[in-house]
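Handover notes (outgoing to incoming on-call)

Open items:
1. Delta 8 Fatty Acid Desaturase: sequence verified, structure written out, both below. Nothing else pending on this one.
2. Nothing else urgent.
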Amino acid sequence: MVSHATTMPLHVQITLSHFAMSTADVGVAESFPQRMLRTTMDVDCPAWLDFVHGGLQFQAVHHLYPRIPRHNLRRTQKLVQQFCEDVGIPYALYGFVDGNRQVVGKLADVGRQAAILAQCQKTLAQSADLGMH
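Delta 8 Fatty Acid Desaturase structure tokens:
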């Protein structure tokens, strides 16, 4: 139980930063920064919580610049946000609650898709049983 309680904040942070974002491969026309900003989100929190998050709340910035020290991530985030605004690239930044809403919404979408696929599989199996395939 101690090991799960200890690693839970890390798991929640990584899930929050990645699960709600697109994983589509849009091909070579997409630049590296566009892909990194499309597939991750940052979590908005006050600066005094930076130590608790360990810098993981800056996933988009971390994916763009993986070697930047944690103490520079907040400053770099502002520069990246300005760049995104200048060139028209969306920058996903959500509070903890809204970010979790995004994750739960994405998981609900995946659940609906899985239910549709299961129904299709059931229908195809019934058609095969009736000799209609």
